Amino acid sequence: QRLSTRAILAPASFREQFGHLKDNDGKSVAAKFSKDKWTTRIEDIRFDPSKNHKIIDREYLNLWEGFGTQPVAGSISIYEEIVGTIFEEEPELLPEYEKFIAMLLQKPWIKQARYLLARGTMQGTGKSLLIELPACLINGTPRGEPSITRASHALIANAGAILEKNFNSSLIGKIYLVMNETGPRHKELTHKIKALVTDPTIQIEEKFMAEVTMPNHLHLAISSNELKVLDISRTSRRDCVLPLIEAQSDLYYKVKTMFEKFDQEGTFDEYRSHEYRSALMAYFLDYDLGDYTGAQPPLVGNSKLYAHNDNMSDVEYYIDNELSEV
Length: 326
What we know:
Layout: H1 11-18, H2 29-35, E1 44-46, E2 55-56, E3 60-62, H3 77-86, H4 94-106, E4 115-119, H5 127-139, E5 154-158, H6 159-163, E6 176-180, H7 186-198, E7 201-204, E8 212-215, E9 219-224, E10 239-241, H8 250-265, H9 267-271, H10 274-285, H11 302-310, H12 314-321
Parallel strand pairs: 1-3, 4-9, 4-10, 5-6, 6-9
Antiparallel strand pairs: 2-3, 7-8
Helix pairs in contact: 1-2
C-alpha cells in the first residue's frame, strides 16, 4: 500500500509517527517503507527556484513548485486602465514597477536590490491592488491568498507578524512577501527590512527547532496608511516608491471614480478571474527587461522625495531645504 504525505519528516520522526502500523505478517510498515528500493532518501531541504526538479542532485528536496498561474495571451485592458490612471502624474515610475514584477516572474532566483512601497493616508486608492498583483500571479488566487491545492510561494501578512515575532518559518519557500500596515515605527523597522532585501541568506527560526540558514529569495512589497513608514532618503537605493495619491487631489478623484465604475460594472470580478490572471502572466513573462538585471536602483520620482521629506523633523527639513540653498 502506498504511503504518501506532504509532511517532511526526519527518519526518526517518521518511525515515531508510523512505527505502530503493521502489515499482514505483523512487520513494521515504517521499516519496510524506509528500506524499500523505491523510497527516495534525502539529506536536506533546499529552496531553489532556478530548478524545476523536486529532487536535486539525488540528495535534496526542492520546495519550489512553480507558479499557480499558467500564461495565456489575452486582453489586459483593465490592468492598463488601472496603472495608466494611478501612474498618470509619474509615468516614469510605471516601468520601474513592471520591471520588478517581470523579473520576479521570469527569473525568480535573481535577488533584486529593491522593494515596492505603496503609502498614503487615503484608502481605496489602489495601494493593495498594485502590490498584491504578483502574489495573485504566483499563488494563482484572486487576492493572492494561499492556494489550497498546491504550494504557495507568495505570502501576504501583517508586518507585525513577520518583523516583531521571534518565529518566521512562514517565510520558508517564499519568493514574494507583502507586508501590510507597517505602522509609524519606521526607524526601528528599516534595518530589519533592509536585511530582508539585501542579505543573501535568511535565518529561519521555528518553535522547538534549531535555527536554519537558507538562501534568501524573498522580494518585498510594503503597504501602509502611514506617511512615515520607513527611514527613506532621496539617496537610498532600495526604495521603489509608488505614486502617492493625496487626499482631495485631482488624481484622487480620478482613481476613486474609476474604482466606483469598476464596482458598479462588475469589472473587478473579471480582473480577479483565472483567465485574466493568465493574460497578465503572459504579459509579464513576455515583458522586455532590456538591460535591467535587478541590481539597478529604481528611479527617484516625486513620491520618493515626498517620502524623504515626510520622514524628516522640522529641523532636518529646514537644514535640508533652506540652508542647502544658502
